[in-house]
Predict the structure.
Amino acid sequence: MHTAKHAAPFFNRTVELDFLAEHTPDDRAALLVLYGRRRLGKTSLLRRFAEDRRSVFFVADMSSRQDQLAAFSRVLFDGLSEPALEGTVLPSWEAALRFTGERAKSAPLLLVLDEFSYLCDSDPSLPSVIQRLWDAELCQGRLHLILCGSYVSFMERELLGSRNPLYGRRSGEWLLEPLHFRDARQFFATSTVEDQIRYYGILGGTPAYLERFDPASTLADNVVHQILARGSPLYNEPRFLLMQELRDPHTYFSICRAVAFGRTTPNEIAQGAGLSDRGVVSRYLQTLRELHLIERRTPATERNPDRTRRSHYHLADPFLRFWFRFVLPNYSALEVGDARVVYDTQVAPYLEQHVSLAFEEIAVQHLQQLQRTQQLPALYQRIGGWWRGSTEVDLVAVSEDGALLLGEVKWSARAVGTDILDSLVAKTAEVANDLPRPPSQVTYCLWSRSGFTPALRQRAEAGQILLYGLDDL
């Protein structure tokens, strides 16, 4: 049996592991698709899943069809312990898959084809070959075939699309997303919660980024040496990410930069990116949304979010926000080696403001976790921000039976007092006006980096006011 190894830290992913286990039953075949942008830990996840399973794990590259078949043959015969076939190269993907299927008739066999898009680049007929064999033979055995890829556009438009030969044959699909804060913070288990939030605010939940930072070093040194220094591991990461997915990334770069600097509506983004045609901007934004790089947010009170024009656009990942806010605009200075100067003058003065946005997202994750563990006064169907005109509420949750929750999130060095609560309460009527009927109950929720004043804690004892500090996260 081939036992997979993993070198990087591996935290949680229990939901994903449970999904894979549930959809690969011992008594029948399964065809799964796992995908997500690079660096999220897809390979580590699948290698962990392959442990203690009879498995063959093949990672494709950009070589030719014949080279891929030769490499796959070596991995296959080694994984199945077939020394008599050592040196043999299977002549085609049809032969390779048929051979694998034969070995999966008597016992379950997991076959992972990682970076599947590379295989299709070298042989575009491969999905059709799999479809033909799956329908005729493979579906009758106990083969568990997992197709994995990092090219999100290819995986969603080509492999999962209705025109693809494999459409309708897969047993399940999973888009791997970044780690939530509660798991990402484990990379910095010896740091304070406050610093863990700062790390998350800079790097987000991408495991390959998180493991680059050294908890024994200062935050400033980590940012300088791992992100800002020319040639450092993360210096050009978003550039590579966009160039991998997009043929002409220049306009997309301008749009992402505009969004990173707080332009959130199509008109604002068009102005910030130097584009005159709002329709063109909307098409670019739609592409970035399909790649899960930008997200469209609507007020939590909206019952038809897809149709409303009350929408804001945000970069979906804290590291993308950091890079487009602090790295790209200072590229000239960084190219000549001024990383420390750029950090001191362009990053440090604005870093807490940048982290405050991630703190709001952590609060949303925390609220969702409280809901999953039934620690809230109601079951809320819609959770998000809220705005109308110049009035904004950091976090609003709405239930179908009329319960309403309003939340404020403060990444401030001062303890939160009753003035913040009073301001939040004053916005209740405006939020409630967006609902079809008056709320049946209203709960107020406050998150604070620096705790709460005694007066606010006393108010909270009366009920309907929830207070959460850093230790609660």
Observations:
- The chain has three domains: 14-175, 182-356, 376-472.
- The domain at 182-356 is CATH 1.10.10.10 (Arc Repressor Mutant, subunit A).
